[in-house]
C-alpha cells in the first residue's frame, strides 16, 4: 500500500480541531526584598548585604535561649530600711588569715606567686 494508508488506523485529531501552541507556565520570581531590609549600613554610609545566621548571630540566639530557659527564682527587693544593715555573717567570715586560707586551699601552698 501507499504510505498514507499505513497510518490510517492510528487515532488522531480530526482536521476541524484548531491546535494552539501550549504555553509553559511562567514561574514568577519571588518578590525582591526591599533594600532597606536586606542590607545593613556599613562604614561610609554604604549599604551592603549581610548573610543571615552569621556565627555571632547564632551565638546571640543561643545565649538568648539560655537566658530564657533559666529558672531563676524571683527574689523580692530588700526593703529600704534593711539595705544598709550589715549581715550577721558578713562581719568576720570574709577575712581569712593566711594560714587559714592555705589550710582551706592547699594547692596554693605549692605555688610560688
Automatic annotation (TrEMBL):
<feature type="region of interest" description="Disordered">
    <location>
        <begin position="1"/>
        <end position="32"/>
    </location>
</feature>
<protein>
    <submittedName>
        <fullName>Uncharacterized protein</fullName>
    </submittedName>
</protein>
<feature type="region of interest" description="Disordered">
    <location>
        <begin position="64"/>
        <end position="113"/>
    </location>
</feature>
